[in-house]
Please model this.
Amino acid sequence: PGRAAMYAGLQELGVANGEDLKETLTNCTEPLKAIEQFQTENGVLLPSLQSALPFLDLHGTPRLEFHQSVFDELREKLLERVSAIALEGKVEERYKKLEDLLEKSFSLVKMPSIQPVVMCVMKHLPKVPEKKLKLVMADKDLYKACAVEVKRQIWQDNQALFGDEVSPLLKQYILEKENILFSNDISVLHNFFSPSPKTRRQGEVVQKLTQMIGKNVKLYDMVLQFLRTLFLRTRNVHYCTLRAELLMSLHDLEINEICTVDPCHKFTWCLDACIREKFVDNKRARELQGFLDGVKKGQEQVLGDLSMILCDPFAINTLALSTIRHLQDLVGQDTLPRESPDLLLLLRMLSLGQGAWDMIDSQVFKEPKMEAELITKFLPMLMSFVVDDHTFNVDQKLPSEEKGPIPYPNTIPEAFTKFLQENRIACEIGLYYILHITKQRNKNAFLRLLPALVETFSDLAFSDIFLHLLTGNLTLLGDEFALEEFCTSLFDGFFLTACSRKENVHRHVLRLLLHLHHKVAPAKLESLQKALEPTKQSGEAVKELYNQLTEKLELRKPSPAEATETPSMELTLPTVPTPASR
Model:
């Protein structure tokens, strides 16, 4: 079959091939004469060449080598010519030339030496004849060999085939995101949200999808449909990130054919700038509001797409960080949340983003109603926590009188816990406030609010993104891990309540301990090691992390001789650099 492929299609064009030579030699009486005649009839028909060929014979150059080099040279020239034809003359004429050329050469498409020329002709044709596309699609090797420009023409009418091509890329994308969230590198400086939008768009999957889509609106719509379907099926918010990244990748390349027809383009572009700054400033807030207010009657379906763009964790992160910043500013200005239009807009966008799944699932395209109590009760409560901190800090600085220092408030209003359990937006903002105080190394506030995280809306406090950020911020409170009270509140009071039922929590706790084990009091570390031992049901990732931790702890154990000399455990602890100095 390999030899047959070499000559595939020559007979149809009336060109003699190896089989013809074989037949001639089998049926002739004088083989040498027959060979000479075959060479004369099928060789390069240049009169001046006939006298030059014997020179090559004298130099011992085989005829095959000569013909091969002539062939390669001609093929290069032909490829250049095809590319030139695709750019010259009137559009109809140039494509007519290419179509004629395809008609003549297509029968040789399976011949390896000619295939590149046929593929090049198809690549430059904006519309390859249907019949030819079907032949390419039916042959695995041809399909594999053809250019992406030709594949696009095949894909746009074959959603299932396009789905097969896109599916592994989408799986790879989700896996990459999860690998970052579970990375063993825990740092407050470099986390999931550190890379800029532009850097993220350079990722392999986004680049491949961008190339597969080209300027083809139909293929772009198909990819969006896949992303919506997968988001509905899995509730995985990383599909929302990809939705925004893909649009902005096409924006970077100025593919106006697609950007101008995606109704979310300008909104996404503006939000992208906010994500880059990790803050929504007043000017951009007005712009974003304009887009939301501008959704016309009859076009409400665009809200489904906008909500998916706002459900991207990078968008939620930016909106939540901006909300916390606004609340702090309001405390300084003695202003209530309901009097701040900027804050209300942030809540409106958070609400739209958090409602994405319900909206796309129900196909009811209207903005979710904001609960008044979120603005009149919950946010003022958060502001009162900020005030508590200010008051406590001022009290600490005042000269202490007879009554002694005022203790830090250690109770939380029942309403706060209830909000975190029942209201999604309140829960999201509450979690970001806790991340904020942890980053400020505010141990008192952290321990005060931590009990509220055990039961939250849809278990948000045990979601990977929150735990990834929390473990990073906790490295700033590293020294507190030596204290029994702190460890009991954090591990027994929070993490261990979910470890047995949530594998991801088990993984995050092990990640944290791998990073901070040298800071934890030895007795506590021992009990944690027992509590975190994997069960038969535990996945490979948990077992692997547990083994890594066990190895690290074995290395730290003093030898029996040392143990007798140094009764104090503290002296044998190795000094480990802080994350910032690594």
About this structure: The chain has a mean pLDDT of 87. The radius of gyration is 34 Å.
